[in-house]
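Practice problem: predict the structure.
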Amino acid sequence: MRSAVVPPWFVVKSLFALLRGLDRLRNTLTPPPLRLMELVGGYGATQIVRSAAELGLADLLAAGPKTIAELAAGCGADEDALARLIRPLCSLGICRKSASRGAFALGPLGEYLRSDHPETFRATAIAAGREQYDGMAGLTASIRRGGATFPERQGSDFFSCLAQREESGRHFADSMAEISRACLPAVLAEYDFSTIRHLVDVAGGTGALLNGILARYPQMAGTLFEQPSIVARVESSPGQSARCRCVAGDMFDAVPAGGDAYLLQRVLHDWDDEGALRILANCRRVMPSNGRLLLLELGMGGDDEQFVRFHADLLMLSLFGGRERTDDEFRDLLDRAGFTLHCVIETRSPLRIYEAFPSRWGTE
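Answer:
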């Protein structure tokens, strides 16, 4: 596992406080019509970055600066149209003008769109601009009815849609792995997994988080539980820990037994309370009395939260009818499923760790 430096807590808290302060100052000093123009034009940045990722511009520029003609030839694009895309990419810090006349190079942010970068976010840029982007287009209807509108817009639910669109499904799975790898150092810095013998990662995607934990704790065994299509892909890919077995299935039917700890990362936020309770009940059913449950979720707090949490909450509503939950809502949900919330651990990432143990009274 690639080592990463986790900044001290005071640095993280000071940075977020500074950014929130700058946002408030910007809102105060910028004339309201102009600020609203900036906000409603945010969709443009999403699609511009998505196009750069899909065209593979960062990979083409990884070896050094190139002219528009060279880039167009490399990605099969129209030269004039590509030149028009490069201009805003330079403004966003994805690209930059090179010292060589007429050539362009990668900017600081552009490095993270390279497919071979160890901390790449290329798949995330693509996934955010596809089905997730379209899901937010139905937000007004979702607010009116209080439920998902993605199935109506696309003709099937989100995960069925990804299963039908192989490329989109692959980008979404890779995006989840990218986000897991980005949050992993912060999770490992805040939580001690050393007493866990066997960790079951429910709906763990391609196993980025589980394999990262196994790499830190060589005494631990792991089970990656996912849909058959994802398991088939994971089993044929390199880099999986020899201590990680893959099991295919549906978490709404059952989850694998044998773990003394069960991990769900950004799973429950996809579902309403009824769906979340079914998943939790299946975990409780196979968990030993001395087992533990670990939920890695964004969580919701006060009105001064990071915008990413508010955005995620509304995205879950539009896509699935799900939600980001407060600590009290998690406590109530866990109690109904036969768990007791022991603690909530902040991490130096957007994720919070909710640690729970089986209640003595079990499930009813």
